[in-house]
Amino acid sequence: xxxxxxVLGALAFAALAAIAPLLPPWLISLAxxxxxxxxxxxxxIILWRTGLVPFGQALFYAIGAYAVALIGRYTPIRDVFxxxxxxxxxxxxxxxxxxxxxxxxxxIFFAMLSLAMSMILYGILVKTETLGSTDGFHVxxxxxxxxxxxxxxxxxxxxxxxxxxxxxxxxxxxYYFRSVAGSLTHPIRDNEIRVEFLGVSVDRLxxxxxxxxxxxxxxxxxxxxxxxxxxxxxxxxxxxxxxxxFVTILAGAGSVAAAFVGSLLFELVRxxxxxxxxxxxxxxxxxxxxxTILFLPEGLGSLVSRLRQRWRRGTAP
Amino acid sequence: xxxxxxxILAVRDLEKTFGSVVAARxxxxxxxxxxxxxxxxxxxxxxxxxxNMITGHLAPSKGSILFEGRDITGLPSRAITRLGIxxxxxxxxxxxxxxxxxxxxxxxxxxxxRDSMLGLMSTPLDTPETAREADAALELFQIARYRDARAATxxxxxxxxxxxAMAVAGAPRLxxxxxxxxxxxxxxxxxxxxxxxxxxxxxxxxxxxxxxxxDIVGRFADRVLAFYDGxxxxxxxxxxxLANPQVQTLISGTRAHxxxxxHA
Lengths: 317, 264
Ligand SMILES: Nc1ncnc2c1ncn2[C@@H]1O[C@H](COP(=O)(O)OP(=O)(O)O)[C@@H](O)[C@H]1O
Ligand SMILES: [Mg+2]
Fold this sequence. Notes:
The complex is a heterodimer. Chain A has helices spanning 2-19, 25-49, 58-74, 80-102, 107-127, 151-178, 180-183, 186-190, 192-196, 202-228, 238-251, 256-276, 281-295, 301-315; strands at 137-138, 230-231. By secondary structure, chain A is mainly alpha-helical. In chain A, strands 1-2 form a two-stranded antiparallel sheet. In chain A, helix 1 packs antiparallel against helix 6 and helix 4 packs antiparallel against helix 10 (202-228). Chain B contains 11 helices and 10 strands.
C-alpha cells in the first residue's frame, strides 16, 4: 500500500514531465505556478492537521521569492538550485524566529498572529523604494548548472524544475505524515497535557511544523519568482495567503496528492473564470468554495477515499 | 553507589506557595524502589500539588527532588517523563476523538521517538512492534475488548485504565497515580486497583498513589503518607496510620470524602 502510493506518485510526476513538451505553453505556465503553490499548500496541510490555520503563509512565500530576486539583483549568481536553496533557508530562518512567538498560540490567535506577521512584511516591502515599492522588480532568468535555456525551452525547464521539487517534497511529506511527529495531530487537538506527559513538547513540535511549512512555502515562492520573473509585495498580501487557505479547503488535508490536484484545479478554474467572466471570477471561485465546504467538507481528496470505500464494499463477498 | 540502597525518589524540604496560599510545605520523603506508597488526606491537603511538583507540572517554590540520585527540581514535565517518571491524572487524560488502540499506539510510538524532534520525525507510527506492544498493553490492563471504541465513549473506569496504560507505555520506573479510583463506584474500585497494581508489579514499577478509601490503601500500600494542610503528618504502615490518633482527628472524614473529590 505504502510502496504503492509512492510508486504511483513517482509515475504521475514522471508522466507529467514526459508529456510536458506536448502541452500548450499557457497550460505549462499555469501548471508551473499551480505546482509551485502546491508546495505552500502542502505546508499548510501540515499545520491544518494539527488544527492550525495560518492566514499569513504568504509571508514565507514572499521571503522565498524576494530572496531569489535579490540574489539576481545584487550578485552574479544565477544557478536555480542555489537560489531556490537560499530562498528555502531564508524562509526557514524567518519561520524559526517568529516560531518562538507563534508556536505558543492556537486557533484564531495563531491565525491572526500569522496574518499580522505577513502584513508587517507587506508594509515593509511597499515602503521600500529600493525594492520597487508596490511595483516590485524584475527577476533575472536562472541557469541550470550552466545551461541557459531561452523562450519556450526555458518555460519547460522551469516546469521540470518545479516538478522535481514537488516530487521530492511529496515523498518527504508523505514519509513525515507516517512518522510519530506527523501523527501528532489529533492528539494535540484533543489533549496537549497528555502529549506533554508522554514526553513531547507541544510548543516545540508546533515550532517544528511551522519551520517545515515555512521552508515549503519559501521553495514555492522561490520557484514562482523564477517562473514569472517578477516579484512584488502582493506575494505577501493577505489575499495571497487566503488563496492558499482556499486551496487547502478545496483539496482537503487528507493526502499529499490532494495538494497538487487541488492547486492545479484552482488555477484552472480561476483562469477559465477570468476569461469567461472577467468581472465576476471571484464569485465563481467563491461558489466553488461554498460547494466544497457543503458537499465535500474534507476536500477533493476525500472523493478518492469515498470511491475506494465504495469499490471495496462493491467487491466484498 | 549501590542502586539497591539509594532511594528511587528523595524529596527534601519541598514547598509550594500560590500567592499567600501555602499548598505544600516542609515535605521530606524518601522512597525505595519497588515500594508502593499510598497518599491520603482531605480535599485541599496538597496531595495533587505534591504529585504535580514531582512530575514537573508545577515548579516547587523551595526544596529539592532527586530521582535515582539525579536532581530533577523544576524540570519541565516532558523532560521528567523522558527520565522515567510517569503519571496519571485525577481526571483521565486521553485523546477522546481517537479509538482506544489509536491512543495506545501513539503512546507506544512516542516512547520510541521522544528523545529528539528528529527521533519523532524518523520513527514511524505504524510498525509491527508498536502494534504488538499496544495490543499487549490493552491485554495487560484488561481493556482489550474496548480496542476499537472511541475514547470519548468509554466508561469512567476504562478511561482511567487507558490513561494509566498510556502513562506506562514509556516504561517508567516511577509512576504517580492521582486518585485512580475517583469517579468510580465503590463496587468497581477494588477490581480496578487489582488490575492496575498487578500490571505494575509485572513491570516492576514503583508506585505512589493518591486514594481516599482507607480499605484500598490498606490493601495495596506498603506505606502511607498522610497529608494535612500541605504537609506530611504521618508516614508509616497502613495499620499504624489507621491507629494514629492525630490522623483520626485531622483526617477523620477521609473515607467519606472519597466521592466528592473530582477537581483537578
Ligand atoms: N494552581 C493553583 N493556584 C492556587 N491555589 C492552588 C492551585 N492548586 C492548588 N491550590 C491550592 O492548594 C491547596 C492544595 O490543593 P491540592 O494539592 O489540589 O489538594 P488535594 O489534591 O489534596 O485535594 C488547596 O488549598 C488549593 O486550593
Ligand atoms: Mg487532588
